[in-house]
Task: structure prediction
Amino acid sequence: MQLKINVQSKVVHYDNNEQTLLDCLESSNVEVHYHCRDGFCGACRVTLVEGEINYPLGEPLAYVGDNEILPCCCVPVTDITLLIEE
Result:
């Protein structure tokens, strides 16, 4: 089943379960600021407006607030909608 990611007025398809959400967004030319790619720094933090994600390697060490996720180390479980601050 191909999941849809609604972000910045476009729809990105997540169809490779081996990649992180950040990798998927980058391959679709959606810019997300990042540094470590491992859930330590929190630089890639975005707002999850709708849907569910999972952290396959365990919860990230960086602080995440309510409705915030770290795309560098998560994968979508359902269709999701993201808000990325410019």
Q: What stands out?
A: Residues 21-27 form the longest helix (7 residues). Residues 3 and 14 are 5 Å apart (CA to CA). The mean pLDDT is 95. The first strand starts at residue 3 and ends at 7.
